[in-house]
């Protein structure tokens, strides 16, 4: 059973930074496409960023480009989301997800495993 556990959320002022972490259990972490999604109150869950290890590629939603960076440490079975220049509209529950199939994808239904989420609140 694959488990994903996020951490690092909290309350931050606009313009600040937060780094989220997601630890994945299991021995096949490096084969997974890892993604970050978020869900604001009353809204659908949306794609934020995704990364593959081989090939080493990342893909970002337009809202994340230039401000967020996704990275992974295969030795620690961990994926990160560094979020800078945060805005109040970034307030959401952030979820990490793992996809067993190759190719960077943005659809919620295309990911196989999910964490429980971590709240990020950006105050104005």
Short characterization:
With 124 residues, the protein is mainly β. 0% of the residues lie in helices and 49% in strands.
Pick out its properties.
124 residues; mainly beta; seven-stranded mixed sheet; four-stranded antiparallel sheet
Describe it for me?
The protein is 0% helix and 49% strand. Strands 2, 4, 5, 6, 9, 10 and 11 form a seven-stranded mixed sheet that branches. Strand 5 and strand 6 form a beta hairpin. It is globular and about 40 Å long. By secondary structure, the protein is mostly beta strands. It starts with a strand and ends with a strand. The model has no long low-confidence stretch (mean pLDDT 95). It is built from no helices and eleven strands.
Please mark out the parts with pLDDT under 50 across 5 or more consecutive residues, or reply none. none
Q: Helix amount, in percent?
A: under 10%
Which series of helices and strands comes N to C? EEEEEEEEEEE
Portion of residues in beta strands equals over 45%
Q: Radius of gyration from the CA trace?
A: 13 Å
Principal-axes geometry comes out as globular
- Rounded mean pLDDT score: 95
List how many beta strands DSSP finds: 11
Q: Give the terminus-to-terminus CA distance.
A: 40 Å
Structural class comes to mainly beta
**What is the number of helical segments per DSSP (H or I, 4+ residues)?**
0
Largest sheet: 7 strands, mixed
